[in-house]
Amino acid sequence: KQEVTQIPAALSVPEGENLVLNCSFTDSAIYNLQWFRQDPGKGLTSLLLIQSSQREQTSGRLNASLDKSSGRSTLYIAASQPGDSATYLCAVRPGSGSEKLVFGKGTKLTVNP
Amino acid sequence: DAGVIQSPRHEVTEMGQEVTLRCKPISGHNSLFWYRQTMMRGLELLIYFNNNVPIDDSGMPEDRFSAKMPNASFSTLKIQPSEPRDSAVYFCASTLTGAGDTQYFGPGTRLTVL
Q: For residues B109 and A32, what is the distance between their CA atoms, to the nearest angstrom?
């Protein structure tokens, strides 16, 4: 059974700092991996999706990497801003035959002005 | 597009009552997902449909939960009878299969069962 873990559960940093969020998964046979952002009281917004054949994806100040063999992904946020404060969730799609996603519990990020 | 629409946004009910949550997916999307989010268990998939057909309901906790998708633009998740442990935020998401795999989430329904 695929399990996804995100450490730390919470992170507080000063504005302008570069930071890395971590995600690990137990079964390396994945179809893709996604990073989502969740603001309080709202739904999830997809940030980046990495296919199993890819090593990384970039969007603006965000860069996500994938190392399937070690069961790890990182989300790098450059020059953090208070507006980046949110909970970041990692989700794995185990296989191509199912659209099911398995989520980690998230890392709550606070960027202090 | 209006995005995924869920109703109600908040629901407070008493134990034993029937609860119906509603979802309208993004027009043109052919897969619809129901998730439940709690502090203890995080975000869990309950069931998903493809072309209105239930594909995977292995996450439905028990017979008290049922979901339907009578057409491409509407789905319901029903809990009967409700229990306090069902209190959670329920999300609906939709996607167009094969078009990038990104799931688009609704704002959620916060359910409180007293």
A: 28
* C-alpha neighbours within 13 Å on the C-beta side of residue A18: 6
Distances from the Cα of B27 to the Cαs of B3, B30, B102, in angstroms?
8, 9, 15
> Which residues 67-106 of chain A have a CB within 8 Å of chain B?
89, 93, 98-106
pLDDT for position A91? 96
Q: In what order do the strands lie in the sheet with B65-71?
A: B5-7, B19-24, B74-79, B65-71
- Which residues from B are below 8 Å from A46, CB to CB? 102-104
Interface check B104 vs A, CB under 8 A: yes
Half-sphere exposure of B58 (CA within 13 A, CB side): 7
Hunting for tokens 């606070």 — which residue is that? Answer: A110
pLDDT of B110 > 80? The answer is yes
Rg (C-alpha) for chain B, rounded Å, is 13
- The 10s digit of each residue's pLDDT in B6-41 is 999 999 999 999 999 999 999 999 999 999 999 999
Which of B31, B101, B106 is closest, CB to CB, to A43?
B106
Closest Cα in chain B, distance from residue A79 (Å): 26
Burial of A90 (0-12, 13-18, 19+ CB in 10 A): buried
**Best CA proximity match to A36, nearest among B9, B103, B106:** B103
Find out whether B57 and B33 touch, Cβ atoms under 8 Å: no
